[in-house]
Amino acid sequence: MSLLEIENVTRRFGGLVAVDGVTTRVEAGELVGLIGPNGAGKTTLFNLISGFTPLSAGAVRFKGEPIQGLKPHRIAARGMSRTFQNLRVFPNMSVFDNVSVGAVGAMGQSAFAAVFGRRARADAISARTWEALERVGLGGVAEDLAANLSYGKRKYLEIARALAMKPELLILDEPAAGLNDSETADLARFIRSLNGEGLSIMLVEHDMNLVMGICSRVVVLASGRKIADAEPAAVRADPAVLEAYLGVDE
Amino acid sequence: MSEFVRGRLVPLLVLLVVFALVPYGLAKFGKGYFFQVAQLVLIYALLAVSLHLVTGAAGLLHLGHAAFYGVGAYVAALLGTEMKLGFLWGLPAAGLAAAALAFVVALPTMRLVSIYFAVATLAIGQMIHTVLLNWVAVTKGPNGVMLFSGITLFGTPVKSPIAIYFLVAGLVALSIWVLHRLSHSYYGNALRSLREDDQCADAMGVDTVRLKIEVFTVSAFFAGIAGALWAYTTGYVSPGDFGFNTSILVLAMIVVGGLGSLPGAIIGAALLILLPEVLRGVGDLRNVMVGIVMFVSILFLPRGLLGEVSALSLVRRGFGLKWGAAPSDREVGWR
Ligand SMILES: Nc1ncnc2c1ncn2[C@@H]1O[C@H](COP(=O)(O)OP(=O)(O)OP(=O)(O)O)[C@@H](O)[C@H]1O
Ligand SMILES: [Mg+2]
Questions:
Q1: Set of chain B residues whose Cβ sits within 8 Å of the Cβ of A104
Q2: pLDDT tens per residue across span A115-169
Q3: CA distance A247 to A56
């Protein structure tokens, strides 16, 4: 059984088929790249997996159980967390409080517990928040407002918030967008090290080098269809990919 | 002075003023009128703090808060006059009735976003107000309800103004403490995440719709408690006190004090109740002057007299956490 199984997943927007019968999977511990030209349906596929967009057809199974039709927070609670392509941090909250939402979202704190609860739960949430913050190296700016962070740091903040949920599968939508080459290289190392600790990751990226460099398998979408699903070297040599994607790029 | 002491100082000072200085002054110099003003400040502080939870923290623009205040007041007054049920029954019943009504209207409303939600709460407020005004058989319509029985605790009537004041102050303090725990905790962080980006909060595992319904209901519960306190202390409720104007007044309090700031809500309530009283001497111009003060304060302090960021760090120190003192110290967060 794979960690995530995507089976014949389809999504139509009116006449447009944004994702068209895609079947693939993520094995536990894998780092899978998802690439494709603009408008290929990558973000839509992420939205389908994470419950933000309902499926038109097909099935998604996470840890062997069907998750299509579940609300995003239910899917998140099962151990999948995501980031967004257009950076979505909570701007008027401190960095610490931003990350704590991931921890409290996963661990829960009821109104009753907030009022009368003992400290143990709150302290556990604090500890988990710190752990995630320090994992991405933002411990030193914990008290700053998220809005005042640099763009690059906000990217890490978003990842820290997702990590605070202690997910089994992390899906990242273009984490390197807007970063310069050295920042991208740092991010690549960071994603690799997360994966090295056993976290399964699915990564959408425009930056071919990043994906080819760190992923063990690459899925290629074009116009909503899967045109390749193989190791980086094989994908690079695939004529269909060259035509659909690399051909456009180079 | 340690951070802990400094953080504890402000709430201690406030409690000292509310429970010692004010009652002392009232007993010594005050007449009935000053007691009314002091109680009004307390009741509006509770209204403002309960609205803070929904509008300031969770970011839901609520334009009908006064209606739940009114429901609480009428439930307390009618239970007292019609069913001879005293304070100990009337007070929780008022809160629960307001909460139950809020829960029912929240179920369909909470899926609405931004301005649509605001308009829906406006409509709910107007509807409840119209019912209070026109359901003459039950609410006595525009004449209002007289509650002669006052407050009775365990069979003993509480008559002395100072005892009533302490009772109101105690209940308001207890209620605000509960709201403070909700706002200043990880639960509160989840509320603020709704305001910032509720879709994103959803992706973090926060059940956004449920949380919104919950916070709307809890807020109405305390508005209902405030209404009951109003009914018991003034002995008279009429629809005029629970209309749109009152909702807007409470909204103005939390904005002037600092949207998202719980201490700010208390400051705003005190300011907007006391200012017109202080300005009584200038006659008809006083409402204009109150307007000018509000306008100027928003112009120069758009984040309020005590904005959210400063309020949160102040409160954190009150928890004994070192927020704002030692960066990257692990002693931050909530307890
Ligand atoms: N909510 C929506 N309503 C209508 N059409 C949509 C919607 N979301 C996406 N689309 C369309 O679906 C197609 C796939 O979009 P998607 O955002 O998934 O592409 P992408 O691969 O993520 O592209 P990019 O690399 O630019 O992020 C596009 O043609 C887009 O216009
Ligand atoms: Mg995209």
A1: 186-187, 189-190, 206
A2: 988 778 888 899 999 999 999 999 889 889 999 999 999 999 999 999 999 999 9
A3: 31
CA atoms of A138 and A135, how far apart (whole Å): 8
**Of chain B residues 274-333, which have a CB less than 8 A from chain A?**
308-309, 312-313, 323-324, 327-328, 330, 332-333
Query: From atom 18 of ligand 1, which residue's Cα is the shortest distance away?
Result: A41
Decide if B239 is inside a domain.
Answer: yes
- Which pLDDT tens digit goes with each residue over B154-170? 777 777 888 888 899 99
Residues of chain A with CATH 3.40.50.300: 1-79+167-250
> Residue B175 is part of a domain; what is its CATH number?
1.10.3470
Phi, psi of B145, deg, nearest 5 = -120, 130
Of B53, B33, B151, give the one whose Cα is nearest residue B102: B53
Pairing of strands A31-35, A217-222: parallel
Give the integer Cα–Cα distance in Å for B134 and B264: 36
- Which DSSP letter does residue B30 get? -
Domain membership flag for residue B271: yes
| pTM tops 0.90, yes or no | yes
Q: Give the domain range for residue B92.
A: 3-318
The topology (CATH level 3) of A1-79+167-250 is Rossmann fold (3.40.50)
- In terms of pLDDT, which residue wins out, B187 or A250? B187
Answer whether residue B78 is part of any domain: yes
Number of domains in chain B: 1
Is residue B64 in some structural domain?
yes
Q: Distance between CA atoms of B229 and A82, rounded to whole angstroms?
A: 47
Residues 6+ apart with CB under 8 A from B162: B23, B26, B27, B35
Q: Distance, in angstroms, between B182 CA and closest chain A CA?
A: 6
